[in-house]
Write a structure and sequence with these properties.
Elements (H helix, E strand, L loop, with lengths): L2 E5 L7 E4 L5 E9 L4 E7 L4 E6 L7 E4 L6 E2 L5 E2 L8 E4 L5 E5 L7 E5 L8 E4 L2 E3 L6 E3 L2 E4 L1 H5 L1 H23 L1
Antiparallel strand pairs: 1-2, 1-15, 2-3, 3-4, 4-5, 5-6, 6-7, 8-9, 9-10, 10-11, 11-12, 12-15, 13-14
């Protein structure tokens, strides 16, 4: 059985994330300040589960609920050192390992567990323009995940938002 979460906006750092019944399960907002930008990720009870601090020259920083201070995002999301693999590893609170595959433009972004690298736990589907309807409509981006993904849903969503933010901001730097 898969569950789907839909992003109301194509911008992952400024969106509501809704479930199949239309309820907001995550609210993501970014406050832009002179010295830094902060993205707060809130759950359905409107509690902050993580805050991302954007940084221009150093790695972004993250603070999870219950933490007293920010830590480098690279201590949690570890990029593969093998060139051209585009994988990012992380661990949950129980020490179980996960890997996002396809963390690069044009590649499908999928989350796998360390103990099963064949079947993805989660898959990100970016927004697409459906040209077969008149007028054409845009299908919103969504994150589909399995029962195992539901067990780690908060961390899965937070890691996805962090990776998409980094991928998109780096992609925009290249275009200029």
């Amino acid at each position: 059985m898969t569950t789907s979460l839909t992003l109301e906006s194509d911008c992952p750092w400024k969106t509501a994330i809704i479930d199949d019944s239309g309820c907001t399960v995550y609210d993501v907002k970014t406050a832009f300040h002179e010295d830094s930008n902060y993205t707060a990720i809130r759950n359905e009870r409107y509690e902050i589960i993580a805050t991302l601090r954007w940084r221009d020259f150093l790695p972004d920083q993250i603070m999870f609920d219950g933490s007293a201070e920010f830590a480098s995002l690279n201590t949690w999301l570890k990029r593969s050192k093998v060139p051209m693999t585009h994988n990012v590893k992380w661990k949950d609170n129980s020490g179980r390992g996960y890997v996002w595959h396809g963390n690069a433009p044009g590649l499908p972004l999928e989350l796998f567990s360390d103990d099963d690298k064949r079947i993805p736990i989660a898959t990100y589907h970016p927004s697409v323009l459906k040209t077969n309807s008149r007028p054409p409509i845009r299908a919103p981006p969504r994150l589909e995940f399995s029962r195992r993904g539901d067990e780690i849903r908060d961390l899965m969503v937070v890691s996805f938002i962090c990776l998409e933010k980094k991928r998109r901001t780096e992609q925009n730097k290249i275009q200029f």
